From TrEMBL:
Its cofactor is Zn(2+). SUPFAM superfamilies: Aldolase (SSF51569). It holds the Pfam family F_bP_aldolase. PANTHER family: D-TAGATOSE-1,6-BISPHOSPHATE ALDOLASE, D-TAGATOSE-1,6-BISPHOSPHATE ALDOLASE SUBUNIT GATY-RELATED. This is Ketose 1,6-bisphosphate aldolase. The lineage of its organism: Bacteria, Bacillati, Actinomycetota, Actinomycetes, Pseudonocardiales.
């Protein structure tokens, strides 16, 4: 199955109320591992790249990794640029072939955010690509973007006007969620998701997914959170898998890099697969 548009992956998820993992990768191993998990679980998958990752690896190298690893893949996958406030990076990724982008203009006044998002949507449509939008910052810093200051939530009508005017394909509201590791169990305004979806049926992107409980995930997905972002959890799993293997290696004094890569890859595959089972996307690729 070829790489497909984001809207195609989310249409079924939104209609049937399951969630598709949107996982931020940061190197070749994590990219290959989450794709392998999708094939293993027969699950659709959204692969996300941060601006930091795009700049660190390089646009052309990252694109080559993506196209080579998805060539002939048997499940629907799509490539998404996460939280990007830089219009030039959005243009570069769309020109190169990214399937969707999150234009993060949440730091701007709503009117300016809306105006620029309309422009990004028009640009994306020329490439057959989709756009995720947001009007409030998600609390926390992720890959150098964001702020720990808690954002003020806009009234429901402000959100609806933004959706009507911009025509974004996915919307990421602030509901008390946060990027990074939660210091305490988050108190989520889950009703806000239901209110938005009832008034303007649009797939909702759940940011700050790492650290939510299984019950919170299931409730939010049932309300319309069809895109579930995971970043911190994979970073932590990747680093801890490396640490555990290297501690064992040091004790044995036996150093074999390919063994390290295999062990970390297996751990990343397991984690992505667990998310697919939890969100209900496993078995939905058929």
């Amino acid at each position: 199955m070829p790489v497909v548009p984001l809207r195609e992956i989310l249409a079924d998820a939104f209609a049937e109320r399951y969630g598709v993992p949107a996982i931020n990768v940061f190197n070749d191993l994590t990219l290959e591992a989450v794709l392998a998990a999708a094939v293993e679980r027969s699950s659709p998958l959204i692969v996300q790249t941060s601006v930091k990752t795009v700049k660190a690896i390089g646009l052309d190298v990252l694109w080559a990794m993506w196209t080579s690893m998805t060539d002939g893949i048997a499940v629907p996958v799509t490539l998404h640029l996460d939280h990007c406030p830089e219009r030039e990076v959005i243009t570069a990724c769309l020109d190169r072939g990214w399937n969707s982008v999150l234009f993060d203009a949440s730091h701007l006044a709503v009117a300016d955010n809306t105006r620029q998002t309309v422009e990004v949507v028009a640009e994306a449509r020329k490439h057959g690509a989709d756009v995720e939008g947001e009007i409030e910052s998600i609390t926390g810093v992720e890959d150098g973007i964001g702020s720990d200051t808690v954002a003020t939530r806009q009234d429901l009508q402000v959100a609806l006007d933004f959706l009507d005017t911009t025509g974004v394909d996915v919307f990421a509201p602030s509901i008390g969620n946060a990027h990074g590791t939660y210091r305490a169990a988050p108190e989520l305004d889950i009703q806000r998701v239901s209110d938005i979806v009832a008034a303007h049926p649009v797939p909702i992107a759940l940011h700050g997914g790492s650290g939510l409980s299984d019950a919170q995930f299931r409730d939010l997905i049932a309300r319309g959170c069809a895109k579930v972002n995971i970043s911190t959890a994979l970073k932590e799993r990747y680093m801890k898998a490396n640490l555990a293997f290297l501690q064992e290696t040091a004790a044995k004094d036996k150093w074999d890099p390919p063994s390290l890569f295999r062990a970390v890859r297996a751990d990343c595959i397991a984690m992505a697969g667990e998310l697919m089972d939890l969100f209900g996307s496993a078995g939905r690729a058929g």
